[in-house]
Specification:
alpha+beta, four-stranded antiparallel beta sheet, 4 helices, about 25% helix, about 25% strand
Length: about 160
């Protein structure tokens, strides 16, 4: 109580954390995107085993357009890239999953969030290491994600 943690966590971490705290057994072979963050809640050290990666279906760009993008947080760094040739959508489903699987990433930007939490100053020349890691993580996610049936009326 009364502590502040600077450890990045996300909603995907809740299921594995609640399962661990309750002693629940998750199904064998189930791969979750999140991780058990109970050490953070208990005030102990936590080291994330894999970076946080997420898609924005309506990411704002400087040109005033809303375009899909993918981001990754690894330690103090965040890398973001636009998904080329992908229309803005509400969800990935059976009608558009191949478009996402074949998307090209471009416009990489890397930020040091410990020095620039507002993401105003992209780092110069640091895209290489992070862009490759983001590309690999994005491909792994879209190649293995659960594909939902298309829902009429969804964009």
């Amino acid at each position: 109580a009364g502590q502040v943690s600077r450890t990045p966590v996300c909603a995907l971490d809740l299921l594995p954390t609640f399962a661990a705290l309750s002693g629940a057994n998750l199904p064998d072979g189930l791969t979750l995107d999140g991780e058990d963050i109970s050490p953070v809640l208990e005030g102990r050290a936590f080291t994330r085993g894999k970076p946080l990666v997420w898609l924005y279906f309506h990411s704002y760009t400087e040109a005033g357009k809303y375009l899909p993008s993918v981001s990754m947080r690894k330690g103090d760094f965040k890398v973001r890239a636009l998904l080329e040739g992908v229309p803005s959508t509400q969800q990935i489903d059976e009608k558009n999953v191949e478009v996402y699987r074949n998307a090209s990433l471009s416009g990489f930007e890397v930020f040091n969030l410990s020095e620039d939490p507002s993401e105003k100053l992209p780092l110069e020349g640091d895209e290489g290491e992070f862009s490759g890691a983001l590309e690999r993580s994005f491909r792994e996610i879209v190649d293995s994600l659960h594909v939902w049936p298309a829902v009429e009326g969804a964009r």
